[in-house]
Write a structure and sequence with these properties.
The structure holds two protein chains of two kinds. By secondary structure, chain A is mainly alpha-helical. Chain A has ten helices and no strands. Mean pLDDT of chain A is 83; it is low at 1-5. Classes of the chains: A mainly alpha, B mainly alpha. The interface between A and B is large, with 54 and 70 residues.
Chain lengths: 292, 316
Amino acid sequence: MTITQKPIRLSFLRTLFGERVSRTVGAVLILLVVLGCIFVPIFSSHDPSDLVAPPMQAPSWAHPFGTDVVGRDVFVRTFAGGRIDLFAALIVVGFNATFGTLLGTAAGSSTHRAFDSVVMRIIDAILAVPMVVLLLAVVMVVGSTNAWGPLPAGLPGAMIAMMLIGWAFYARLSRGQALVYRESDFVVASRIAGLSQWRIVTKHIFPGVGRLSLSNAIGDLVASVVLLASLPFLGAGVQPPAPEWGSIMYEGRGFLQQAWWITMCPGIILALTGLGLSFLADSFLDSREAGK
Amino acid sequence: MGTRALRRIASRVGQSLVTVFVVCTLVFAMIRLIPGDPVLQILGNEASPESIKALRSQLHLDGSLLQQYGSYLSDLLHGNLGASLIQRGRPVSEIISSSVTSTLTIALFGLLLGVLVGMIAGIWGAVTRRKVVNVGVQAFSILAYATPTFLFALLLVLVVALMWGLLPAGGWPGGFVQSLPYAILPAIALGVNLAPKFLRPVRQEAIDVQDTLFMEAAISRGLPRRKLNLSHVLPNSLLPLVTLVGISLGGLLTNAVIVEAVFGIPGLGSELSKAVAQRDYPVIQGITLLMSVTVIVGNLLAETMYQFVDPRARVQ
């Protein structure tokens, strides 16, 4: 593949005001959203599913994001929904990055070529199928309406689907990076020095591969939140009445003209989260690995 | 073209065939992995034994697993995708052919827009000395990446269609010319989401090219900057686009399905999500296979094309 796999730094804030401003703005945005998700549902006098006011009331002091089609508070629902989106994204990305990086490193640095080929064919097959098709297939198999413990209906299926697919991206990236390291001077030197294969992989190859995956994972959080919120538009994802960014917006999409706030207010919070994470991801990139 | 390049293409074709086969097998396994008896799930518990038997044979769920797999593959090879369970036995191929036009129209226009925007903005941002342009390109790229397609699509509906009344908010009248105004907003939503994926590598390539020896040589020969950009930077930075278009097809189809839902366009995506909601297995099978094969063939074409456009790829 001739495409530069390395992540590219694109924070315009860094170009304008420098690294520190970019990182701080990213961190503050994320902190605000996370604090909102923790405290708004706790201190709010009503539940996300309570009917608090007449339907489709415009934003006001009592209800900063207005009320939805049946009269629930969109502000409380947005931040309660953020809990679901951010939690799911963390779990999914955490699993994908860990599993994919370990498997990719193992395949890339393995001395058994057969193992490498098998892993690569599986990755190819997963990446060759359009994401939407695999997602819907897995959601159908797992069931789109199951609720497990505190997880609302639809979330377990969506999370499992994202985990079955997502690791392949990390595995491919890590395998490529491990192949590069395997031929690099310091690894060849340690092989000549008589270090064991295990020690070479764990001490010399894995740290570099892991750092690349980590910087990738922060950017991937954005993609995972976006994907989870897109699922209701595909007929899957978190089922109402549970509040989730995507399902709130999906419910409000038919009422754009009468009540734009039902879709746009959670949308703005979602976009700000994505923006903050992108700034953070940018500042986590190693400037030696990243492009200009 | 050397024999080595031909051999590589042949091996890629072989790999793609294997992937198509794996996908077909996955789709076959999908229905059998669903918990419970899919036939009873479709027909309900009070169905007559005759209709259960008929559906079972239609879905190839009778006979041993190996027999089922055999008849499934032979049906596929004969181009027989089966018939819908919900839509009164309408053939799947007919459902696909009647819904594919709208999806194809918005996807192709979206791809075209994404490539154009990504290419122009990527190269412009790399060669410019004006900070405003550079920052603008970066800001567009990071914003378009962080905003979900459906949110941007909803924003377009709200502002362009509902508030300004410039374009229709959704629907699809059918007929190519009449449908064009209905394709503009969906195509913009798809293109804006796609553009950063092209923009980033193109921009990086355009920056890397400027550090090469042949650029240095061209600069010292006194070539004017405009000519330099046109004859050296442009062709080299377009190289990644060839492969990128192939790779991005899967994401494009996923987003086309989402955008169809936002704009209420009857297309492949709406047929797919309708079929998923109603458990219409033959339709899911058909559309799944069509989309997967499109992506696999797109990737294959992109990689083969690459051998032609970049001489370096042929000798490596």
